[in-house]
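hi! just following up on the protien thing from before. the input was this:
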Amino acid sequence: MRNISSMEKVRPTWTRLAAIGVAVACALATPAYAQNDKMQVVPIPAQPNAITLDTGALPGATAPESWHSQYGSLFARNVTVATLTPFLPDPAKATGAAVIVAPGGGFRTLSMENEGWEVARALADKGVAAFVLKYRLNQTPADMPGFERSMNQMFSGAAARPPRPNPQMAMAGLAPQIADSRAAFALVRKRATEWHVDPDRVGMIGFSAGAMLTMATTLNGEDAKPAFIGLIYGSLAPVTVPTDAPPMFVALAADDPFFANGGFGLIDSWKSAKRLVEFHLYEQGGHGFGMYQKETTSTGWFDAYVRWIGMHGLLKPKH
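and the predicted 3d structure came back as:
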């Protein structure tokens, strides 16, 4: 971890990110309760290709990993050991580009299907190697009724609003997830030849809380150094942009209940730093649209993202 003087340099960034984390956590279950789409416990699915990362077990964790279905999709919670699952294209069509995919869920769950596996399969179909990061999560009650009560309490306003942490506390709060992200980048680059990946063309895309992790990895992931990043319905709070910040793709719906009304500071930050950015603000789509097929134009975000990485030459092998 960096020393205190380094932390002081990122004070504005990490104070904002800490506040964002609270908002993202609140984003987790709102659509479920609004649509009365009940969470149903399911057995942990087989994940034969998942590779355990070397970041160890979540310190102090007591609740075991569990999964549930919702919206006809699969979610994980109480993840205590991080994994990375490769989705590799046919070697004959591999472009050499790779993307680490970080699902969202407020650091309390992970939308493994809608914001993970389905995204990765679609990327592999385009010749881009994709790796779904199942990162460690904040602990929630082990039983589903307890989890539902905790979520109801959060949305009822009965839960006390946590104090805004200082930058050191914010960093400590995200330390396991950033470690998992760094380990994912290290593993992909270590096995780049085997997976037909160019180690200089490894990017990251995240959704909601996963977008926050993508930004945290970009700003303070040390050796991770994503070559390009995608933030899908994440916060647009301004940040201090590194001089070597990568090209950034951003997609957000104008009716997103969490992040649509806070201005476009992140976009302005990237532009002011003269770094490359593409921003899509869709009229409708809400929060959490991911790979769900909807009538709104937000469904087109993936095609726009693929065109964007193609514009940067990432859909063709590098010669």
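The domain at 4-311 is CATH 3.40.50.1820 (Rossmann fold).
The chain has one domain: 4-311.
cheers
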